[in-house]
Design the sequence.
């Protein structure tokens, strides 16, 4: 059985980026479909089976699928040969509380799991440096995307060559937030006029997380015309993508990844 992958347009030979869709969905089960995240309450064997199936489909080993245990931090980990030489327990420790990954290794699939937050993949094809980040509102306020760009540069990337794409995430219409969240963005010096609007009937604030992360990337030096925004909303399309706002936090997650072949 082939898993359905929503591939991003990456005009770089040897680099693939994708988000997974849920596949067959049972509306009574918030975990139904394909979930690779092992810390959200899903059955461990189901998660392992999904990971094995994806690894086989991509033609990689199971331990070539690398994903962090995310905590809405702004921490970035580098997946390099020293990391690969660690035993599994030390690798898990190194990935604890990490929300973004950078690597220059071929054949290593780095990915994040999201359920409304913004997944971002980045690549400098000439330098052979790729990255992936999970940006919820806290990570966005903390400018995790800029942290990733900084680490990519340390690994040899040129910011002028970096291309970035955002996978399925909650749209502005669906992302209602409290005023304390708006205040967090204000204190972090975001242009609120560009990312916040008030609902005409409720007066509630709605934030555009994609636009906010785009602004972070541009400020970090990534050319604006090299940033691709997804038009898929996780909450509007629950049969295709997991959504915590729609299904609750006790639900699966959408896997978004990038790798060099």
Sequence:
């Amino acid at each position: 059985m082939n898993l359905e992958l929503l591939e991003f347009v990456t005009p770089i030979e040897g680099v693939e980026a994708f988000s997974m869709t849920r596949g067959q969905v049972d509306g009574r089960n918030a975990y139904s479909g394909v979930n690779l995240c092992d810390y959200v309450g899903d059955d461990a064997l189901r998660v392992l089976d999904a990971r094995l199936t994806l690894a086989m489909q991509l033609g990689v080993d199971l331990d070539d699928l690398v994903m962090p245990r995310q905590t809405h931090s702004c921490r970035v980990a580098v997946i390099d040969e020293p990391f690969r030489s660690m035993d599994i327990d030390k690798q898990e420790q190194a990935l604890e509380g990490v929300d973004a990954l950078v690597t220059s290794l071929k054949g290593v699939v780095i990915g994040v799991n999201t359920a409304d937050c913004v997944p971002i993949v980045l690549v400098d094809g000439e330098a052979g440096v790729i990255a992936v980040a999970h940006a919820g509102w806290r990570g966005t306020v903390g400018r995790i995307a800029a942290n990733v760009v900084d680490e990519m540069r340390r690994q040899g990337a040129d910011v002028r060559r970096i291309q970035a794409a955002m996978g399925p995430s909650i749209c502005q219409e669906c992302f209602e937030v409290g005023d304390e969240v708006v205040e967090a963005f204000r204190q972090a010096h975001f242009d609120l006029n560009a990312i916040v609007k008030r609902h005409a009937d409720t007066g509630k604030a709605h934030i555009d997380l994609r636009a906010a992360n785009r602004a972070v990337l541009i400020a970090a030096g990534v050319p604006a015309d090299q940033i691709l925004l997804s038009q898929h909303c996780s909450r509007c399309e629950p049969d295709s993508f997991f959504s915590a706002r729609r299904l609750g936090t006790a639900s699966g997650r959408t896997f978004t990844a990038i790798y060099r072949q």
